Amino acid sequence: MAFLTLFRIATGDNWNGIMKDTLREKCDWSDDCIKNCCVSPIIAPIYFVVFVLMAQFVLVNVVVAVLMKHLEESHKMMSDDEELEKEIRRELQEENREKQRQIERQEREGKEESLSAYAFDEQQQQKQQPQLQTFLVEHESNQVASPIIQSCRISCSDRLIERRLSSIYD
Asked: Which portions of the sequence form the region Disordered (predicted)?
């Protein structure tokens, strides 16, 4: 029972009420007391105040130590989480860079194909141009053929532009 009383005092649970019980007025504070004994009215308050202060100091230090330990563990977990997050960001950036490189390679290959298609179209056009020039020379004097020739030139250039655009966007 004495340890429970001391624990109650140490935790601050009605310690002043327990101290008042030790300061009863109708008690015998002689050395050979057997019944209704009490301590000196000067010693009891000093004992309780010193005990409470020491117990509170120890309990506060224990609580602070526990809190600091948990704070340190949570800080360590947060730093681990931050490192993991940084690693994930680095991996995502690497993946994005790799995807960008692949897209650029595909675009370059597509442009090379479109350039080769363009070169092929130019070769075809150069082959057809002498035929068109001979056609123009033959029909220069003919005024009626002139609008037909103009529309032929426009449609040929339109087809060439369409081929170039389709090869670029495909």
From this structure: 78-112
